[in-house]
Amino acid sequence: MLQNIRDNSQGWIAKTIIGIIVALLALTGVDAIFTSTSNSQNAAEVNGEKITSVELNQAVEMQRRQLLQQLGRDFDASLLDEKLLREAALNGLIERTLLLNSAKNAKFAFSSQALDQVILKTPEFLVDGQFSAERFDQVIRQLGYSRLQFRQMLEQEMLIGQLRAGLANSGFVTDAQVQAFAALEKQTRDFASLTLKADLGAVNLSDDDIKAYYNAQASEFMSPEQVVLEYVELKKDAFFDQVEVSDEELQSAYQNEIANLAEQRRAAHILIEVNDKQNDEQAKAKLLEVQKRLQQGEDFAALAKEFSDDSGSASEGGDLGFAGPGVYDPAFEQALNGLSENAVSAPVRSEFGWHLIKLLGVQAPEVPSFASLKEKLQNDLKARQVEQRFVEVSKDLESASFEASDLSQPAQELGLQVKTTEPFGRQGGAEGVTANRQVIQAAFSDEVLEDGANSSVIELDPNTAVVVRVKEHNKPEQLPLEQVADSIRAQLTKVRATEAVKAKAEEQLAALRDGQTPIAQADAKQGWSVVEAATRSQEGIDPVVLQTLFRMPKPEAADKPSFAGVSLSNGDFVIIRLNGVSQPEQELSDEDKAMYSRFLASREGQQDFAAFRKHLQEKADIERF
Fold first, then answer.
1. pLDDT tens-place string over residues 63-75
2. 2-175+603-624 is classed in which CATH architecture?
């Protein structure tokens, strides 16, 4: 535990900011935030703000997927309690609404630049360590977002994260609390343990025992609900061979390409932000002081490092690198274009604040030859035609599928092949079409599953679209006794063996506590395993044994040990004899004291945040429908 505290107390906010997003996504299913249907029935109303049934349904589905990912693909999704899922999802949506509104009321804010940095550094959007716009679009599209929707969602999650961090970081503890906790943490215990083995071979089960368990636990022995889909797949790449590009189109594209070339200008700047802490006049006054020092001969880069509020460029002396037209704020760009090399502008006002701008260099455009660009231009022109063709055929597929009673007719009309999936459940398949969230939702929707309709066109990724139809629906059925008898026998054998050894151990424990059985003779076949000065994180000892050991009361005297017992996961039973408890004698080092203080303060802060959430719910006007 000591190492856990040390690890968890470093850079708390930096390590948890993305974790906050992921946890809230998992908890509340926030991919439903931007789906709103004015005519939808409402699931709840929170202080006058409605949570729609559509939002709730999607939150339930998100929570189901999260649980199935944690439980593994072998878990039977039909065992999940739909009522409990809906209740948990609705509670999450209500809590999220309260937290978001509280963050807004408290004037928390998250700048566009900071949001950009979160996106640029999110591992899921990186390719070879660099941000990939293509990868970004692919990931958010699979989640059902446009760029604007994703940014809006992420901004809201950041606001909630700021609120959480603000409350959690406000916790504090006294030196006495730190000392008391450290004494418990560093405490050691001398003990001995005696393991009584569960004897599986001693258990005799009859066929009637197996049948009785099978009948009593019938709900455990159901086949999983599964579907087999038929689907037609539309691939964008298939259209490349169907389009042609003329020489005239290539020449026109080349002329447009080189006409857009412009010189690149390398700028550096010193930014003084206008924000809640300083108004426009104060920011400008501060910049004028910086300008005065610059005019007195001080170095621009040094002043940028000292004063610039642009954290991204300040450490580089304000250097923004080379950029072409249209990159910067219009006022910034106009001032930059009016400078000669190494000249510094007068103060310039942008949407971010006040700038001093320096032109570090100018790079003339290099005009590439037609031959060097031909292949790229050809691919670009083809891609535009293919994109248009893909959209058109997708619409044709949508219409044909809507009108048809199966997929054979749309497939024939569009020259596609009807394919069939392997059976899969509500948790989805391992890969391909059946692993796609939208396909799973469509497959188990009432329209497709119960009514037997074709789905609408589903975009798997920017290059692939499908329409699915249920070919087979395998509902949960009682598995025959013969199929599950062996697993029942193994499970019941373990249960009986565990019960038997536990009963024997409890008799022995009672005798030990009463002093009727000498410790050395407690078990003729097995000896006591003695451990001295065991810590809470002692290696080589089952965690369940350690947990029980450190919950035991301190022995009354050296010759009067305490006893306890605990069952292990394998059915064995361990009798524990606590011989003594030792407290640390040496003083805490400053490093350990600071570490414990951070850990306890963080824990206090988390408890404060939990209390705050409870307070929000208690005073809120919440109506569930």
1. 776 776 666 655 6
2. Orthogonal Bundle (1.10)
